[in-house]
Specification:
single chain, 324 residues, alpha+beta, Immunoglobulin-like, five-stranded mixed sheet, four-stranded antiparallel sheet, globular, RloB, RloB domain-containing protein
């Protein structure tokens, strides 16, 4: 049994700056609005550890190192082990000892020697749960870049991404002590759409290549969606149906050449589609064009076709299934 009364999420970050500060900013923003979820970002500052009401059961006792933050010095708990395997192992410890109901490891491609082992270990259940991975290739900054541009481009080094962004005047620097969340917080919808498109394109171009070897790639948006209460965004075209997993139901959606949408309930439970539950998104601006969808209930195996003939579309769209 968890010692937390609320749902608890552990986010284990590769770095002590860019990723850590980014998710701390989201945590601080959303936890001022709601208290139904405890979000802990690791590695933690010594001050956070001292102020925490956690017990010592299962606490990881690694080395500490110092980092500057403004004019203050903070000791950072250092997680030991092989990269990036150690972050998965740490997440598993959190799930095993009850520190978290959900664990995420955030890391980059970065030529880590144990990437394959890390992804394989993350798939192994512990207490009925798995460690989720928020992965970026070549680096976290590529995820940030997708908030400004729908781009599929291989970069060999992180500094190449930063140099590209500076030339485009998207941002100046990401490695300082300021959180990069402020750079993209007003552009999250664009980022969700572009990340969905990137994964779709990656699956087409590199479908036989493991995710940890792909370049470019990111699924960091899935963690961000989770934290702010958004459903995962999907990108699809007339060639490829998409499956939406919702609780214990599976809804298959197919975009047909005439602009109609075919819905098929492939799950074992009734799937209820709320009215106007689909947002059609402009891929360049991330803004909503319109909402679609009639309220209906689909029994297992049942299908339904909706004709959205009043909406002009090209060969592909972004579609977002809203939360109930």
């Amino acid at each position: 049994m968890s010692r937390y009364s609320n749902y608890s999420i552990s986010i284990i970050c590769e770095g002590t700056r860019t990723e850590k500060l980014f998710f701390e900013s989201i945590r601080d923003e959303i936890q001022t609005e709601k208290n139904d979820c405890v979000i802990n970002v690791y590695p933690r500052n010594k001050t956070e550890i001292n102020e925490s009401n956690e017990t010592n059961r299962g606490a990881y006792k690694g080395r500490k190192r110092q980092t500057n933050k403004g004019n203050k010095k903070f000791e950072i708990e250092e997680i030991k082990g092989a990269l990036p395997l150690k972050w998965i192992e740490e997440g598993r410890r959190h799930l095993e000892d009850g520190r978290a109901n959900e664990a995420w490891a955030v890391f980059d491609k970065d030529r880590h020697p144990k990437a394959k082992e890390a992804f394989e270990l993350a798939e192994k259940e512990i207490n009925g749960m798995k460690v989720n991975i928020a992965f970026s290739s070549i680096c976290f900054e590529y995820y940030l870049l997708l908030h400004f541009e729908c781009i599929y481009r291989k970069f060999d080094q992180c500094e190449e991404v930063n140099e590209y962004a500076r030339k485009k005047q998207y941002w100046k620097e990401t490695k300082k002590e300021n959180s990069t969340y402020n750079i993209v917080k007003d552009r999250l919808q664009i980022g969700f759409a572009d990340c969905a498109w990137l994964r779709f394109t990656s699956d087409e171009k590199e479908k036989d290549i493991p995710v940890y070897k792909r370049n470019p790639y990111t699924n960091v948006d899935k963690l961000v969606c989770k934290l702010i209460g958004e459903k995962e965004w999907k990108y699809w075209d007339t060639r490829t149906p998409v499956i939406v997993e919702y609780e214990q139901s599976h809804l298959k959606m197919e975009l047909l050449p005439d602009g109609s949408i075919r819905f098929t309930n492939e799950g074992n439970h009734t799937f209820i589609i709320p009215e106007n539950s689909f947002s059609i998104i402009d891929s360049e601006t991330g803004t909503q064009i319109c909402t679609k969808g009639q309220r209906c209930s689909l029994l297992p195996g049942q299908e339904k076709i909706e004709y959205w003939s009043d909406w002009k579309f090209s060969n592909s769209i972004f579609i977002h299934l809203k939360s109930n």
